[in-house]
Amino acid sequence: MFELNPLNLPGAQMQHIIMLVVAGVLGFIIGYVSRKQTIRQLESTLLNTERAVVDCYRATAAVVNKEDEETIVLNRIRARASDVNYSRIGTATFAEADDLKQIVGIGPFLERKLHAIDIYTFRQIANFTEDDIEQVNDIIEFFPGRIQRDNWVRQATELAKKK
């Protein structure tokens, strides 16, 4: 009867090679796209985890004694730290902290308030604009206009130069 063997057709081997190459290229493209998507998901998870760790450190440092009035104030201030524009004033860590009490008008408790919103250095205060001054003044619950009257920006600029 009929013998229908596809391998006996002319060009059958070439068709198989072409299909194999196309399947390989498609597999590579799908794998590449899938890998990129997995990398994006992992980077997002890593970023969220890093934020959670930072929040965890802040939370453990903040909750010393819930009855302590100072702790309550610092927790309230710390909750508003994200309102500060760090891209303009710069960022710093506690390890880089200057003694902000050298600025006239900043005492120990006010320094702790500034640390609660991640302001640690003279350089950060020296970079304050009028908007930053109003915002920080509101966040740390300080007397309106006091930062300008004590001229923190000028003092911080001079202290940063000496450092």
Automatic annotation (TrEMBL):
<keyword id="KW-1133">Transmembrane helix</keyword>
<feature type="transmembrane region" description="Helical">
    <location>
        <begin position="12"/>
        <end position="33"/>
    </location>
</feature>
<keyword id="KW-0472">Membrane</keyword>
<keyword id="KW-0812">Transmembrane</keyword>
<protein>
    <recommendedName>
        <fullName>NADH-quinone oxidoreductase subunit E</fullName>
    </recommendedName>
</protein>
